[in-house]
Structures are given as structure tokens and as C-alpha cells.
Amino acid sequence: AFRNVLWYRRGLRPKARDFNWHNVVGFWSAAPLFVVVLSAVVISYAWAGNLVYRVAGEQPPQQQQRPQQPARGGPQPELAPEGLNGLWARAAEQQAGWRSISLRLPTAADKTATFTIDGGTGGQPQKRAQLTLDRRTGAVSKWEPFSSYTLGRRLRSYLRFAHTGEVFGVVGQTIAGIASAGGALLVWTGLTLAWRRWRAWARRPTEGAREAIAGADAALAQRAD
Questions:
Q1: Helix, strand or coil for residue 100?
Q2: CA distance linking residue 124 with residue 8, whole number of Å
Q3: Can you tell me the distance from the alpha carbon of 90 to that of 142, in angstroms, rounded to the nearest whole number?
Q4: CA-CA distance, 145 to 138, in Å (whole number)?
Q5: What b/e readout covers 46-84, taking b as 16+ CB neighbours within 10 angstroms?
Q6: What are the tens digits of pLDDT across the range 191-210?
Q7: pLDDT digit string (tens) for 66-90?
Q8: What pLDDT was estimated at residue 45?
Q9: Is the pTM above the cut of 0.70?
Q10: Cα–Cα distance, 123 to 117 (Å, whole number)
Q11: 3-state DSSP assignment of residue 56
């Protein structure tokens, strides 16, 4: 029984082969698929994301409203890129070993500029930090490495990229990809097993047919006597 569940077997008939594959893939994919599904629920539904914060003993953050777009044909917000080059150079000095830096482009009314400094592959929140600089002086207004986040925010960030496995780099992405392919195989083998079971059930004689066969057998037995 354990061999049928833990590893593949060769030389099996189609029904036994599909049963073996279904159980083996299900056993080895259970843990990564659980993480993939759980993280999908968290990033897809607001109530699930808020639940992560509540489990950590925190209040969920307020949803940020999107800035209103200017009316079509009206005056457009002015961008003031002058001085951003100096701020970018200052951001590059904040953390050694960074691999990418991105800027949320401010408008003319903003007094600060917020940079995201990433030392990972782009999907590793534990290697990401946010730097907010004063646009006038270049002074650091806020520095937020991952370690400064609250527990709820760290868990939420981990779950966001655990869905694709990126949080663990190439190894995590490989495991997530294999588990996703295993999920597709589970669907296929489950359907084939259900189809074969239905065909076997459909071929079974009905109660009336069984009684008729039994009566015919009894009649033949009497004639033989």
C-alpha cells in the first residue's frame, strides 16, 4: 500500500497505473500545492489578506484610494524631474549590493520621493527595502528595510511571492512549477479513474435483469432435471 502511494510502479494496467500516478503525485505535491492554494486565497480576497494581519495580532491596513485622474482635456499634473538624478544617486548609496532600484515618480506637489531598493531577484520581499527622501534636501525621511516591517506585513509579503515560489529563488520557482504540473496530472488521472468507474457501473446488470437471469437459470436447471 505504501509503495502504491509513495513511488511509481511499472508494468501496471491502465486503471492501476492511473491510480498509482494519482496517489504518488498527490502525496508529493500536497505540501507545495497547499502553499500555492493558500497564498492564492490571501492575494485574491481582501478578507483573507486581512485575516493574516489579525492572526499576527494587528489591525489590517486601510485600503489606499487610487489618486483621481485629471479630467480629460483639463490641466495635467506637472512632473518635476529636475533633481531626481541626485536623489537616485543618493538612493544607490543607501544599501550596498542592490540589484535594482525603482522610483515611484512623484508629482510636483509631492515633497518626497520613494525608492524601492531590491537586493534579490524581484520576488524576494526579504531582500527589499523602501527609501523615502526629501526632494528639497535629499535627507532620508524614512528607511524601511524588511526587518522593520510588522509581523503581519512580513507574512503578507511572504505569501504574495510564495504563490509563485519566487520567495525561495530558483529552487522555489522550480518546486512551484512542478507542483502546478502535478496538479494538472491529478485532474487528468482523477477524471480517467472516474470515467472507468462510471463505465463499470453502467455495465452492471439492473435488478430486473439479474432476476430475469436468475429465473432463466432456474428454468434451465429444472429442464435439466
A1: strand
A2: 34
A3: 13
A4: 19
A5: eeebbebbeeeebeeeeeeeeeeeeeeeeeeeeeeeeeb
A6: 999 998 888 887 776 655 56
A7: 555 555 555 544 444 557 888 888 9
A8: 93
A9: no
A10: 12
A11: coil
